[in-house]
């Protein structure tokens, strides 16, 4: 009985510690709208697999591996797309392939 109670408490503490606040999720949503879409985000979700799915108002769709990839995409947008966003972005095993809004194409090694 005590063991079951301790397991429940441990699970609750771990779950609470790992979950993100509403403000943190809102920040990620806002960052994604500027980083990827260059316009408004129509839908934003993060699955149990950790992947982030983003559908932009301009019908662009992105599947991002994780938060680290999203942060790197933000840097690439600023450096290569002048902050205008992407019309396409693919993360490969050894490089990123993307097209900026305005049709500039890039292949950048990881």
Quaternary state of the chains: single chain
Q: Quote the distance from N terminus to C terminus.
A: 51 Å
What is the number of beta strands?
6
How does the helix and strand content classify structurally?
Answer: alpha+beta
Q: Classify the helix fraction into a percent range.
A: 40-55%
The proportion of residues in beta strands is 25-35%
Instruction: Provide the gyration radius in Å.
Output: 17 Å
Biggest sheet features: 3 strands, antiparallel
Secondary-structure element order, N to C: HHEEEHEEE
Give me some keywords for this one.
alpha+beta; 110 residues; three-stranded antiparallel β-sheet; 3 helices; single chain
Give a concise summary.
This protein is 43% helix and 29% strand. It has helices at residues 2-18, 22-37, 67-80, and strands at residues 41-46, 52-56, 61-64, 86-91, 95-100, 105-109.
Structural description of this entry:
- This protein has 3 helices and 6 strands; from the N terminus they run ααβββαβββ.
- It has 110 residues and is of the alpha+beta class.
- Helix 2 runs parallel beside helix 3.
- The chain has helices at 2-18, 22-37, 67-80, and strands at residues 41-46, 52-56, 61-64, 86-91, 95-100, 105-109.
- The termini are far apart.
- Helix content is 43%, strand content 29%.
- Strand 4 and strand 5 form a beta hairpin.
- Residues 1-17 have low confidence and may be disordered.
């Amino acid at each position: 009985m005590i063991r079951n109670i301790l397991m429940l408490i441990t699970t609750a503490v771990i779950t609470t510690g790992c979950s993100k606040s509403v403000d943190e999720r809102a920040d990620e949503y806002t960052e994604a709208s500027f980083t990827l879409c260059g316009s408004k985000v129509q839908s934003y979700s993060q699955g149990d697999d950790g992947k982030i799915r983003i559908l932009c108002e301009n019908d662009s769709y992105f599947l991002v591996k994780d938060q680290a990839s999203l942060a790197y995409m933000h840097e690439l947008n600023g450096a290569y797309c002048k902050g205008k966003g992407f019309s396409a972005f693919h993360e490969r095993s050894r490089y990123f392939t993307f097209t900026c809004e305005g049709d500039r194409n890039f292949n950048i090694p990881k």
